[in-house]
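Support request, please re-run this one:
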Amino acid sequence: MKITVVGTGYVGLVSGACFADVGIEVVCVDIDQKKIDKLKKGVMPIYEPGLEEIVVRNYQSGRLTFSTNLGEAIQDSEVAFIAVGTPPGEDGSADLKYVLAVADEIGRTMNDYIVVATKSTVPVTTGCKVKKAIQDALDKRGSDLKFAVASNPEFLKEGAAVEDFLKPDRIIIGVEDDRAEEIMKRLYKPFQLSGDRIIYMDIPSAEMTKYTANAMLATKISFMNDIANLCELVGADANMVRSGIGSDPRIGNKFIYPGVGYGGSCFPKDVKAIVKTAKQYGYDLRVLEAVEAVNDDQKYKLVHKVKKHFGDDLSGKTFAMWGLSFKPNTDDMREAPAIVIIDELRAAGAKVKAYDPIAMEEAKEVYVGDKVTYCKDAYDACVDADALLLVTEWSEFRIPSWSALNKLLNNKVIFDGRNIYDRKYLNELGFTHYGIGV
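Re-run finished. Output below.
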């Protein structure tokens, strides 16, 4: 079986490599020649645990190839996945120009029946637009070739994407005919050996499922952060509250950890997009509008605590920052709380010394020049710093040497943006600890 995956970003590259790993012939296509050349040399455009190994292995075996020529790639392909970016427009809606450009090119170059499956996160009715774009291109050719459109949204977690793809908890497929369903069923059979995880539905429902899933997870995060802020005011401990409600199976213990807000390529963009979609239909998603507002405010929470301790004017102060990516096990800086925190500290006159195990090169694209001092390790960032800010909960930050920090920091003050440290223990060591919701 041969398939084509258009787009070698986070979704496309992981999907293509994992399909190849179960024996499928995969061509990954991208318009960026430099990216394709690097992939052929085993150089990854993103950091994702396990991805480099699986890409290199399948490229060397010949099952996975890379190209900039979509017209050649889709010849004899049974499925073409669209996995290109859908960046938010100024109004928050998803920009579909890349998705529709791919659909148009498929219509101009296809030579046989093909299932065109959208993996990009797209709003409801996109399937109809993709179908029209392909059909319009075929009509211009005077061609009567048949095709089907499908929606196959991804549910990959950054930092665990390869495992999520190879061992999915569910596979959502929106199809419009039996032939397309049969092809997609055959494609995903290798991932079904331990049980049927495919849920078939119509295309609009599949498109909505993706947005709804991310919106629900974002809601849990903002809800818990809102409660954490109230806990601080009334003298409660949000960590204890989280444990109490998380033991209820109806609620669960995932995505209810207080912190400095969510970021990344999915949650912020998708919440904005579904809110915009609702407005286009004359409906206000009031809960999600609040989710977005709470998250925007939460990114300032740690800086408010810094200013409460040191004063609004931070001139002459230097702060160590541990973590830059929006979450551990990724170099993704998109919408990362660290960006807001750095901007606010610098605006108040402070200097920032930062360390992240993976994301510093990515951060240098955001902060050009000497706006941030990037350090060789976590302890180097703390040398002569007035306080430490924990922003991303990388594993190596979980049990630091407090005796070393006692010697390196000018003040024994910790601003814990992820609530990973034991306040009572730190207080016994003479540290002042500020958490979220405590």
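The two ends are 55 Å apart (CA to CA). The first strand starts at residue 2 and ends at 6.
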